[in-house]
Structure formats: C-alpha cells, structure tokens
C-alpha cells in the first residue's frame, strides 16, 4: 500500500514502474561516479537541456515517470528512455536500486545518469555523446568479468605500446584520446589494436563492460592491472594475453 501511494504521488516525475518492480530488495546506493548535478524537475526540462547542447530528442511516447524519445546523434537515430525522479518523494536508495536493476542481467542496459535522473540509451555506442551533453556519466551493463590480475601496470601508453610491440607488434601509433592509443602490426593495413589506460579498477571495469555491450566495437579484449587492449584479430589477442600476463575478457560479446 505504501509503494502504491508513493507511485501515485510521483506519477508525473518518477520512474515508478522501475522501483516498484524491485520494491522487495533493499535500497541501493547510487554509484559514486554519478555526479549530483544537473537535476531536472521533469523529463521535458531534461530534453530542453539536451537540445541546448545540440542533441534534439523528439518525444515518441509518454509514460509514468518519464518519456521515450528519438535523438539524432552524429547522423544516427538513437532511441532513449528518460526517467526523472521527484527527490522529495523517492529516496536516493530507490533511485540507485532502479539503476542497478536496469544494469543487471537479464536486462543488461547501458545507462546515462546524474542528479535525480537516468536515461537508458538503446544503442550504447552513442551513450558517451548523450552523457557529454548532460555532464553525466555512462554506467554500462553489469556483465560478469573474470578475475583480473593486479599486474603488470604501465606508467603511460608508450610503455604499454612498447610491451605490445615486443609481443605482436604495435606500429603506426596514434593517440586518440587522453587515455587511448591505436596501433597495428606490420602486416595490417589499418590500426587494429586499441590500447587504454585506466585510472582505477572501477574505471577499467566500466570501460570493459561498455566495450562488451557495443556491437560496433571489436570485442577480443585483453586486460590486467591498469590497462586493456581491444584486438580485431583473435590470434594476436591470445598471443598478447600470454606475453603480457593479461586475461581475455570477451571474444564473442554478451
């Protein structure tokens, strides 16, 4: 009866269906990586903020606690499920529980979250763009990961690239982001290895899970310590895993 009353009070602003479904489980903290701002009074206010950052999202349907919309991101049509919670009615533990239930199997959803809201991005490839527009973070599905060794660790990308070069080759190196680099073998025409360094084990695990959940990303992934490498070629990946002391995270995806 209490849950029903809360849902009726929050019918406009809260994702009632999400936390009612899990009302028997204990409250769950919102992940530490989720920023406390921005906060929105409604899903429409969130869409307006998204539009101001150049990502217009056309409303497809409205539902309890939010709406579904279609955004155009880098020329692609991307559907999103927007949920905004009334923080005066719904406690953070309930919001955290709703987020966790979406990320766990069997759902395995990719979530963009901040403040008192989250968005399920149906095509995870575009989740980082949505998160960037709203100063939010991407929370990937909670796919299980193997036991990942604490070592070896590398001080910078160049050191990781040198180790990979000694194993299967890492030529034509190109820095593609603050923590990312691509390279290839002598035989490959295109860079086919993607190297990343990660600030913390949690950041590493999030990056691994996000890569597993995106079909467009090559998913033979090797990792250990503070690094991960995605390979196009499975044979090269297995050789590198042996030589660098890493483990294979995924060769086929979820």
Brief description of this entry?
By secondary structure, the protein is an alpha+beta fold. The chain contains 8 helices and 12 strands. The two termini are 38 Å apart.
Description:
There is one protein chain. This protein has 254 residues and is of the alpha+beta class. Helix content is 31%, strand content 26%. The chain contains eight helices and twelve strands. It has helices at 2-9, 16-21, 43-52, 92-103, 127-133, 157-167, 201-213, 234-244; strands at 57-63, 66-73, 76-84, 111-114, 117-121, 137-139, 171-177, 180-184, 193-197, 220-224, 227-231, 247-250. The strands form two sheets. Strands 1-2-3-5-4-6 form a six-stranded antiparallel sheet, with helices on both faces. Strands 7-8-9-11-10-12 form a six-stranded antiparallel sheet, with helices on both faces. The chain is elongated and about 55 Å long. The chain starts with a helix and ends with a strand. Residues 1-23 have low confidence and may be disordered.
């Amino acid at each position: 009866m209490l849950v029903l009353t809360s849902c009726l009070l929050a019918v406009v602003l809260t994702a009632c269906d999400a936390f009612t479904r899990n009302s028997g489980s204990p409250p769950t903290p919102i992940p530490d990586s989720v920023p406390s701002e921005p906060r929105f009074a409604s899903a429409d206010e969130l869409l307006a903020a998204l539009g101001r950052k150049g990502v217009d999202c056309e409303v497809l349907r409205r539902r309890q606690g939010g709406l579904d919309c279609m955004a155009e991101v880098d020329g692609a049509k991307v559907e999103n499920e927007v949920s905004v919670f009334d923080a005066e009615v719904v406690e953070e533990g309930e919001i955290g529980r709703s987020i966790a239930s979406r990320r766990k199997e069997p759902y395995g959803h990719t979530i963009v979250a901040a403040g008192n809201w989250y968005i399920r991005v149906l095509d995870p490839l575009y989740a980082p763009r949505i998160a960037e527009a709203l100063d939010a973070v991407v929370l990937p599905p909670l796919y299980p990961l193997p036991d990942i060794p604490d070592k070896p660790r590398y001080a910078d990308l160049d050191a990781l690239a040198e180790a990979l070069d000694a194993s299967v080759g890492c030529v034509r190196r190109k820095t593609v982001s603050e923590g990312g680099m691509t390279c290839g073998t002598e035989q490959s025409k295109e860079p086919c290895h993607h190297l990343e360094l990660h600030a913390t084990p949690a950041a590493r695990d999030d990056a691994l899970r996000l890569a597993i959940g995106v079909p467009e990303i090559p998913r033979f992934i090797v990792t250990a310590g503070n690094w991960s490498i995605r390979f196009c070629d499975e044979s090269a990946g297995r050789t590198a895993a042996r030589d660098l002391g890493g483990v294979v995270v995924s060769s086929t995806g979820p």
